Amino acid sequence: QVQLVESGGGLVQAGGSLRLSCAASGRTFRPYSMGWFRQGPGKEREFVAAIHWSTDTTLYADSVKGRFTISRDNAKNTVYLQMTTLKAEDTAVYYCASRLSRAGWLPSIAGAYDYWGQGTQVTVSL
C-alpha cells in the first residue's frame, strides 16, 4: 500500500506562486511515474503535469505549460509542483497520483494511476 500526502496549498493572489509537495510512504516506493491532477469548482478532474520517475521525462497540460514545473526528489519520495504566475482559473483541489505499472507512459490518463492523495486546495484571488 502506498500513501500520498499533499501539502502546500493555500490562498494566493493572481500572479503569485505556490509550491505543492506530495510525500509518499508505505511499501518500497518505486513508481513508474507521478502526476498532478486538479478539479476546479463544477469541473471534472483534469491532468496538470506528470514526471517519469526514472528518466525525468515530463508532460504538461497546455493550460499550465511555461508556468508550472514538476520535479521529484527520489531520496525523499516526494514530487513537487512549482506553480508561478497563478491565475484565477487555477483555483482547484490539486491531487497527486502515482502509477506503479510499467506497462507504458500514460501520463495524462487518470485511470492509469494506482494511488491518489487526498488533495490540497489552491485558491487564486483576483
Give a description of the structure.
The strands form two sheets. Strands 2, 4, 5, 6, 9, 10 and 11 form a seven-stranded mixed beta sheet that branches. This protein has a four-stranded antiparallel beta sheet with strand order 1-3-8-7, with no helix packed on it. A hairpin with a 6-residue loop joins strand 4 and strand 5 (about 45-50). The chain is an all-beta fold. Helices cover about 0% and strands about 50% of the residues. The model has no long low-confidence stretch (mean pLDDT about 95).
Question: Summary?
Answer:
The protein is mostly beta strands. It has no helices and eleven strands. Strands 2, 4, 5, 6, 9, 10 and 11 form a seven-stranded mixed beta sheet that branches.
Question: Which structural class do the helices and strands define?
Answer: mainly beta
Count every beta strand, where a strand is a DSSP E run of 2 or more residues.
Answer: 11
Radius of gyration: 14 Å
Q: Indicate the overall shape.
A: globular
Approximate strand percentage: over 45%
Total of helices: 0
Distance separating the two termini? 40 Å
Query: Helicity level, as a percent range?
Result: under 10%
Main β-sheet description: 7 strands, mixed
Sequence of secondary-structure elements: EEEEEEEEEEE
Mean pLDDT: 94
Detail the poorly predicted runs. none
